[in-house]
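Hi Y.,

Following your request, here is the sequence exactly as I used it, all 263 residues.
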Amino acid sequence: MSTLSLALSDSSTMLRRNLLHVRRYPSLTLNLLLSPIVLLLLFVHIFGDTMSAGIGGGGGGRSEYLAYLFPGILMLTIGGTTIGSAVSVSMDMNEGIIARFRTMAIHRGSVLVGHVVGSVIQCATSVALVGTVAVAIGFRSTDATALEWVLAFALVVLMSLALTWIAVGMGLSSPNAEAASNNAMPLMVLPLLSSAFVPVDAMPGWFQPVAAYQPFTPAIETLRGLLLGTGIGHNGWLAAAWCLGLTGLGYLWSKSLFDRDPK
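Below is the corresponding structure, written out as tokens. Let me know if you'd prefer a different format.
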């Protein structure tokens, strides 16, 4: 069997292993998924009229704020789902299964590839579930073309891939699953400090750089433009650059940690 065939075969096996773990232990994924859904319902049905009035003059009420909020909630969903990857990788490292994999005749990188691909699939599924809830409470995207939907899906996948590699590195560098969960928490906190809930220019001046110069704000603005037909400007290129940069950084970091000799 060629090296490529071996890598693909072993990676698919590891992917099945991780998907089986999700099916058998769904509580972690469900807990991380409930947070964005609760925030979506809370901000739309409780704060929607007030938030809409503060952003756009109060013309559209809850439906207008739902349209504004939805892209940010999707990015929050991705960030939250990838925390599960950090916990899963840390558990593998500390429960001895990785040490056993090292002694077996399997492709070395397949273990991490299985985690990453499995996490991206979980992110896409979580985004679809949150999107279903948003549609059920009134979200509509009538102006988006087929190409814009494809680009929006591609952005979701790229962001999922980038954050997953970062989460894998956090899991590998953590001494236990609890520490991995805490270390990966910025992946869910940063979307809260972005333009997900209010525009950057509506924030206090001292805080605007925090919201503007981070990966989630350009990704949210790009997704918002694709789904709602608003202007994207330079945010599309910034979002792509953040995704590619974080993917490369996370991959190199994770690979260096995984290749270290066990202590």
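Residues 41 and 137 are 8 Å apart (CA to CA).

Thanks again,
Q.
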